[in-house]
Design a protein that fits this description.
268 residues; alpha/beta; TIM Barrel; 8-stranded parallel barrel; globular
């Protein structure tokens, strides 16, 4: 039975004197044209690296397909190149073993699009830009210079109200926030459970959202994040029953490889 958006429980809202749930403030950052009038827009559905179950990930094809399937937004990965430009790629190396940090933009495969091209094809959607910058990767930059590059492009393109910048590196999103306080930022967490610590860190540093791995999320986690004023966008969720369960817990976003499946699970 499709989940009715109006039936979603928001336990955090029922506690205290909170008048609106955190997700409402978070969603107001984005254009109202994304949503159906009169319908609760949460949870948003984001195509994980585009509609990556049906098209090569982090490509124009995958982003366009996510849009065609009805996704509210896409999640994509950016890494730095040798010339300071950006590459949309999840791993630090290409399939042939070459490291992205050793290559210029011109040396990347023809299938590699630019962030500007991705923004063009995602016009009218929310774009979650994940900045890859963790110490274990060969392209790690302790100065977080890629944050400057991303913010500069968002300013140039007028995309600050339609982008959400996330990273596993807290220093990276702190840099984004320092450069552009009006750009929503999100703290990504992996399978190793940080629990309340991650929520407290994200809130204390002034970020708007937390992006936990689905294996670490339960209803109490969602409630805690909302109590701290954080939106909760969960990755990566493809199972319809799990999507409905997360929606019932009040999550604000579902990051999925199969946007069409997620939207169908939500009865949209």
């Amino acid at each position: 039975m499709p989940l009715r958006t109006g039936s979603r429980s928001h336990r955090a809202v029922d506690q205290g004197n909170v008048e609106t749930r955190p997700s409402q403030g978070f969603l107001r950052r984005f254009p109202e044209t994304l949503f159906t009038p009169g319908q609760d827009p949460a949870p948003l559905v984001y195509g994980h690296r585009g509609a990556s179950a049906d098209a090569p990930e982090n490509t124009i094809e995958a982003f366009a397909l996510a849009r065609a399937q009805g996704a509210h937004g896409v999640e994509l990965d950016v890494r730095r190149c040798a010339d300071g430009d950006m590459a949309l790629h999840h791993d630090a190396e290409l399939a042939d073993g070459r490291r992205l940090v050793d290559l210029t933009r011109a040396e990347l495969p023809d299938t590699s699009c630019t962030l500007a091209e991705a923004l063009d094809v995602c016009e009218g959607m929310v774009v979650n830009i994940e900045i890859k910058n963790v110490p274990i990767d060969p392209d790690h930059d302790p100065e977080c210079g890629l944050a400057d590059t991303v913010v500069a492009l968002l300013r140039e393109r007028g995309w600050r109200d339609r982008a959400l910048v996330s990273s596993f590196g807290l220093a990276t999103i702190d840099r984004v926030r320092a450069l552009a306080p009006d750009v929503p930022t999100a703290f990504l967490t992996f399978i190793q459970p940080m629990g309340p610590k991650a929520v407290e860190l994200a809130a204390r540093h002034g970020h708007q959202a937390i992006h936990p791995h689905v294996a670490t999320v339960d209803e109490a986690f969602v409630a805690l994040a909302h109590e701290h004023g954080l939106a909760v966008n969960v990755w990566t969720v493809d199972d319809p029953d799990q999507i409905r369960q997360l929606a019932g817990w009040g999550v604000d976003g579902i990051v999925t490889n199969v946007p069409a499946v997620a939207l169908d699970a939500l009865g949209r």
